[in-house]
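Example record

One chain of 290 residues, shown exactly as stored in the release files.
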Amino acid sequence: MGLFRKRKGIKLNKILEEKDQERLALVPDDLVERCPSCRKMLLHKQIEADCCCPNCGYHMHFAAYDRIEWLVDTGSFSEWEADLQTNNPLDFPHYAEKMAQQREKTGLNEAVITGRALINQQTVAIGVMDSRYIMASMGTVVGEKITRLFERATAQRLPVVLYIASGGARMQEGILSLMQMAKISQAVQQHHQAGLFYLPILTHPTTGGVTASFAMQGDIILAEPAATIGFAGKRVIEQTIKAKLPLDFQTAERVLETGFIDRIVPRERQKSVIQTLIQIHAGDGVNESL
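Predicted structure tokens for this chain:
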């Protein structure tokens, strides 16, 4: 009956969303940001130093250099391999142009920053992957920088703290990208055999070959709240098994329940937890509880 037919109407939410987009277009890029979780508009000066939403606590994207500055002792960071850049090893069409655009957009030469720093006066080798750079996909240079991070840490007998985020292997580098899994894993194993500590912190998202290799090789594996952690994408899995997956599938909270990570640590506690773990594995006496 016509009485029960769904009437066409104006979708108010859609109009409001479009109006927000119009307003956003008039605002400078460095002034306002929208929280991906609660969808509230935030002035950048409202966002705390740890890049968490002041309204809902959502862990927003944390740029690599900003995260390092927030975590380590002031002025202690010394970058390694800063000038390494991808040279399009397979001559993939338009790849070089895309890399140039990414470097200009992000201010990074590649999707990972590595170096040496102090955390509460403890010397560490540190790496931070940045998903702004082609979703922190793992190409040959990303693999080389992380491999050298572990090799230097082994030679200098340093613990490794590695913040991980990635969409997986970089398709423009084909099999060379996939080879980085084995390359990094053997460097991690040598670091482990030397009796040194490796602490990966999984951030949103950690997926693909990165998850299948060095992301899960840590002595203790931490994660940020609500981070996506998995191998294949949720839609791919659903299409393969012809079934609907739970809403919390591949969330850090669900991965913790299944035993693949050791603890979820919000950013407000990360400094103290990392400091404590480094001190414990360095053999120092520690009174602080995790």
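Notes: Residues 174-193 form the longest helix (20 residues).
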